[in-house]
Amino acid sequence: MIEEFEAIDVNEDIKSKRYQYAMKRVFDIILSIIGIAILSPIYMLIIIAIKFDSEGPAIFKQVRVGMDEKKFTIYKFRTMIVNAESKRTLDIDPSNIDSFVFQSKSDNRITKVGDFLRKTSLDEIPQLFNVLFGTMSLVGPRPEIPDVVKYYPDAYKQRLMVVPGITGLAQVNGRGEIELGKTIYYDLKYIKKFSLWLDFKIIIKTFANVVKKDGAF
User: Is 92 within the bounds of a domain?
Assistant: First the structure.
């Protein structure tokens, strides 16, 4: 699959849509402010639930790789026990990176409240602050963790040429269950086909998938 991606070049697609990307940023700012304001009561309820369920901070912070391979801090509601990252090693085979899947259906580090937050995707809503700050967009390739990016072949790095998103074409086609090779396929397809109308359709489909809990764990 890597060989297929080597034939793809998204540079011209991005350059030809600068106006739409500028409008995308305007919409991101407006919608993130509205979302934060509307969801603020839910934020408080989730924080209380997390605190009652397990020890540790309510907000989980993690370094991710964004546009142009710049690292930034992503915000999520904590869904695992404290220090969960130190209790798992990523099983990455550099020679078969296409088959890598980040999430696991049977992860005993996930808390009871965390399980609910993941299935409803409510753990992701603090990322509206990332969107407001400009490190993320509402729609785009999901921001990758540095330990996976370091194994990226050059063809994969094209997905890092745009601002990462809370949801994206890959997420509405499988959420946390698809392999990295398929994720890259959908991300590059999104970049080549990008339009504000496509973003709108992805957002609508994201809500539909959350209601149906498709691919959530």
Answer: yes
